[in-house]
Design goal:
single chain
């Protein structure tokens, strides 16, 4: 499992809303670094490219969930 995959997994499995944004940012940074590597060398395999696109979509959903959680009034 690559670094970005581990960080993405950590983000999607996080159950503490207060820590989720930090995990999302870490995963996003690792994915961006990997995409930068692609631009320098071979571009990655089709499978890894698909995994990255899926992960970016998943992080987008998590970001929306964090925003919704933060906008809820305290009970």
């Amino acid at each position: 499992m690559s670094n970005w995959e581990k960080l993405y997994k950590d983000a999607i499995l996080e159950t503490d809303w207060s820590k989720m944004e930090e995990r999302i940012q870490a995963a996003d940074a690792a994915i961006s670094a990997r995409l930068h590597e692609f631009s320098i060398n071979h571009g990655g395999t089709p499978e890894e490219n698909q995994l990255i696109q899926d992960a970016l979509s998943g992080l987008s959903v998590l970001r929306r969930e964090v925003v919704a959680w933060r906008s809820k009034p305290a009970v």
